[in-house]
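Hey, I'm writing a tutorial for new members on how sequence and structure tokens pair up, and I'd like a real worked example in the thread rather than a made-up one. If someone can provide the structure for the chain below, I'll link this post from the tutorial.
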Amino acid sequence: MSRRSSRYAWLALGSLALAACVVLANGRIGTRLAAAQAPSFTDVTVWSDSLDPQTQTLYQNLASAIAGFSGVPDVRSAYYSYYNDGTNWAIASWGASVLGAVPDGNGGYNVTLTVGPNFSISTGTYVVGDYSEIFNVDANGVVTYVGSQDPDNSGGGPLCEFS
């Protein structure tokens, strides 16, 4: 299976798992940053299969800038709190993928990322949620957290899990 088709297979599997889940949780959107319970990001990736070379380079540069961001928004910690009990689950760090970027009108970009946990206790399980964050990368490369999105209000409780 090619890298591209395997990526789409994981996306399809994740989408099916998300669609199949019944979630009872109370999510909220916020902008406060917590003291880092875990490093902000260990990796920020760009899926380049459908990007032209110029956009690919732009997204890679934005991803590199955001990867250096320190701080974890309270809303991210709250969204994934069910998976940070330290016994069965322990969040060690965070991974993210660039979903898109739009010019901010000042020479920078507002970048939307899907964000998920990397666990220190190996469970072999992936957690799928409908959570994203927006960061601004200004013209000087300074990164600012803008906000979070939890459109289905599923944060704080069990999410879709698959192995």
